[in-house]
Amino acid sequence: MQYDSIIIGAGLSGLTSALLLARSGRRVLVLEQHPQPAPVVRGFSRDGFYFDSGFHYAGGLAADGPFRPLFRHLGLESKLELFPFAESGFDRLQISATGETFSLPVGFAAIKAQLGKQFPAVQAEIDDYLDEIAGKWSNFPYLNLDTDIADFGIQTVHGASLQERLQVFSAYPQLQSLLSMHSLLYGVTPEVAPVSLNAQVAGSYYHSVHGIVGGGRALVAALLELLAAAGGEVRCRARVTELLVADAAIKGVRLADGEELSAAEVLVTINPAQLPELLSPGVLRPAYLKRLKNLRQTGSAYIIFAKSRRPLEFLHRSNLFIQPQAGVFTADTDCPLQERPFYLTAADQGQGEVRGLIGVVPAGYAEVAEWAAAGMRQAEGYRAHKQRIGEQLLELFAANCPELAELELLELATPLTLRDYSLAPAGAIYGVGRFLGQYNPHPVTRLPGLFLSGQAIAAPGLLGTLVAGYLTCGSILGHEYLRGEIKACC
Ligand SMILES: Cc1cc2nc3c(=O)[nH]c(=O)nc-3n(C[C@H](O)[C@H](O)[C@H](O)COP(=O)(O)OP(=O)(O)OC[C@H]3O[C@@H](n4cnc5c(N)ncnc54)[C@H](O)[C@@H]3O)c2cc1C
């Protein structure tokens, strides 16, 4: 079968890219190894509850938000119902050691005012810092429709780390906590996280915060509907094992069952460290392939899914980050669970009363590596490990929040679950991270017809992956053409 474009991976960036290319008139096929499209974000139901897995909330989607035109351009705006998170505290922080709690209200001005009240001696520094974040996040390519795309990527390689930038608040460790807690949402610790990465992720939430009614499942359904309407196809249980190359250009892909599919363009949205395994030797320069293989990955996590006998009013449209001691966040996993920071969110926030709980706690792959081999997920030892971790985490949650005293564990995802769902090495929760000093790959490769997309290209999250789809498709269709289309939607 001859396609114009084959996209490997039906995650958010793969589906976005497929939609943009199908709309340009191309014959498009998306190939996904998992039995269902978008395994990371589609969520699941258990015991009558719907639990989101890889999508809880997004920033920058307010009516005047710079992310909104992309939503409109893709056709998602009219298919999805958004709901706002709590204006007075969309994210809250609790320091376990002291029991102190802090809230981040929605909007840069509100955050400045609130933090200024709590930390008046550094109001000027707070204003400066938030002005810097406001400027940086909205200058992200495709959010700023006139910014120089060539510069993108360089900003996150050089410059200060978030930890260095927050030194100015060293007399106020609680403030450092509040301003670094969103590092849990991109998986790079502040010590090695570029300020601009934190701006891209945290800055969007500072601007405005929304959930989607029906969560990740509704988001995926909308993308699939739009793609089908544009004539694009999706095939699941279709693992690509080889990229086919002839006459120094891409020619198609081979699947695990040996089937060959032809295409003039192939977009790879999988973890870029796995690209070298798909290519025969000599197709791309060894130095480039070595760089891809050695890209630094984000850490992994345990994700707990539980139900509460009591309504979780305190988590209604407001997430809770918990840190053992105040100070710049770390996601160190060489310590007991009780010493790690974590975040809690309620499941299915789009409806009225919420009773489902999701907790995300950093974890190291080594903690589960002994059960990594195929078939070991049924091993008694792995089940017992999951049960033990689940119980410890429920205790930890209840010790921090009395509201969580009546939880029942329904499911626990481990680094192995994350690896199985995305095929990311060591279950890297957000795939390849953007670390200071690391050059993440560019969408265009030296092999004609081969392009890269995915969270490693821009940033993790709905915003980062949609932007990644635009960056890659802009490299194919022309950035000015795509930006012109989006401008027409503004
Ligand atoms: C626990 C968790 C919570 C999150 N919460 C939020 C949130 O609240 N808000 C937010 O905006 N973002 C959130 N994210 C981040 C967001 O989910 C990710 O950034 C995003 O889903 C990544 O999309 P992607 O398309 O780049 O990658 P992926 O979703 O990993 O897509 C790549 C796809 O390629 C497939 N694949 C891999 N190898 C092959 C192969 N050889 N052949 C065929 N298919 C292959 C994989 O199965 C996968 O489906 C969260 C993520 C996690 C894990």
Ligand set = flavin-adenine dinucleotide
Share of helix, binned = 25-40%
Mean pLDDT: 96
Q: Quaternary state, please? A: single chain
CATH superfamily of the domain at 2-79 and 213-295 and 433-489: FAD/NAD(P)-binding domain
Give an overview in words.
The protein has a domain at 2-79 and 213-295 and 433-489: FAD/NAD(P)-binding domain (3-Layer(bba) Sandwich), CATH 3.50.50. It is built from 14 helices and 19 strands. The protein has helices at residues 12-23, 68-74, 108-118, 123-137, 162-165, 173-180, 195-207, 215-229, 275-278, 286-293, 380-400, 415-422, 461-477, 479-489; strands spanning 2-8, 28-31, 44-46, 49-51, 58-59, 82-84, 91-95, 101-104, 209-212, 233-235, 240-246, 249-255, 260-268, 300-308, 319-323, 342-346, 356-363, 407-413, 450-452. The strands form four sheets. Strands 1, 2, 10, 11, 12, 13 and 19 form a seven-stranded mixed sheet that branches. α1 links the parallel β1 and β2 (28-31). α3 (108-118) runs antiparallel to α4, α4 crosses α7 and α13 crosses α14 (479-489). The radius of gyration is 22 Å and the shape is globular. The mean pLDDT is 96. The structure holds flavin-adenine dinucleotide (FAD). Flavin-adenine dinucleotide binds at residues 8-14, 31-34, 39-41, 54-58, 239-240, 269-270, 303, 360, 422-423, 429-430, 454-455, 460-462, 465. Residues 8-14, 31-34, 39-41, 54-58, 239-240, 269-270, 303, 360, 422-423, 429-430, 454-455, 460-462, 465 line the site of flavin-adenine dinucleotide.
